Structure formats: structure tokens, C-alpha cells
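note to self — DONT lose this again. spent like an hour looking for the file last time. sequence + predicted structure for the chain T wanted, 96 res
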Amino acid sequence: MHSALQAAVLDGLVQRNVAKLVIGKPRAAEDHEDAREHCWEAHEVKTFLVAAKAAGARPAAFYALALDTGARKGEAAGVRRIKTGDIAQRQPPQSG
């Protein structure tokens, strides 16, 4: 968030980066053991994708994308298919 707002400041889109005002920002832990403990093994991923495929093509594609890229739910949901052959590209949000 901080870097995105800083880029907006540099582009003249906003006057200041309000993320700099946050006190007590959460910091990433130095030890990533907790994250490793919550990662799925290959056989668990395979089982999950089989279940997703049984639920339909859309859930299968959504979860395969999320697992392959590490995208969060909202990030994966933001991907839209553009009719340019077999290539899916990310589109910027539509401004109203």
C-alpha cells in the first residue's frame, strides 16, 4: 500500500502518502516457519484441484490460478479474460 501511494505521489495523483502517517505498522516476521507449516503438500493440492474441477470449470480455473500464482482471492477475482485468443490478461479496474 505504501509503495502504491508513493508512486501516486510521484505521479501527481495525490498530494501526500497517508500510509506514512500510520503508527505501529505491522511488520513481517523474520521467521517464516509459520507460513511453511500452513503450506500444502503436492498431494493435498492435487486433491483440492480434483474437488475444484468437480465443482465446475470456473472454480477449477480460479483455484488453479490462485495456487499457481500465489494470488489472493481478491487478486485472482480481478483477473478478466479478454478475447485475444488463449491469453488471459489483467485489465485495470473501470473507473466510474
